[in-house]
Amino acid sequence: MSADEQAEGGSSGGGAPASIYHAAGGDDFFRELVETFYARIETDPILRPLFPASLEGGKERQFLFMTQFFGGPGRYSALHGHPRLRGRHLPFPIGQKERDVWLGHMLASLEKLAPPEPVAREMREYFAQTSQFLINRHGTVRPEFLGMPQ
Fold it and tell me: d(Cα 33, Cα 35) in Å, to the nearest integer?
């Protein structure tokens, strides 16, 4: 599977090994991760304006996507079709700053829940790569992610 397919949620929607979902703690772990992350978003002056007034719909979609991607039930695709992460995020202005803040909140949330290794490492890598892939504003992508000399 290509890096783009993996970032998009994989061709079947379950891009990561099933063991991550189970090893992390299943639905309970991912529900708590999403709640912890969104509690941080709620007060963030950079990211909060990018989200709708109610965060509930986004919480549910993120929970469904993450559980599916990391090997749990395919509920996201059953309800919403292929994840198409990049396309679904195009309406939102995501530059390097927004990506870095988002990633900081997600990694802090993950660290707070302390899943076992290598699960935590694999999740950190996925979040870092995928958040970089979602940058959609010209002139904001770091050269090393474009394969350009620095």
Answer: 6
Residue type, 17: P
Q: What is the CA radius of gyration of the chain?
A: 15
3-139: CATH, from 1.10.490.10, 2.60.120.10, 1.20.200.10, 3.40.1180.10: 1.10.490.10
Q: Which of 57, 74, 61 is nearest to 21 (CA)?
A: 74
| DSSP-derived secondary structure letter, 148 | -
Instruction: Please report the DSSP string for 39-100 in residue order.
Output: HHHHT-TTTGGGS-S--HHHHHHHHHHHHHHTTS--HHHHHH-S--HHHHHTTS---HHHHH
10-35 pLDDT, tens digit per residue, is: 434 445 545 899 999 999 999 999 99
Residue 83 near residue 9 (C-beta atoms within 8 A): yes
Mind listing the pLDDT tens digit for each residue in 75-93?
999 999 999 999 999 889 9
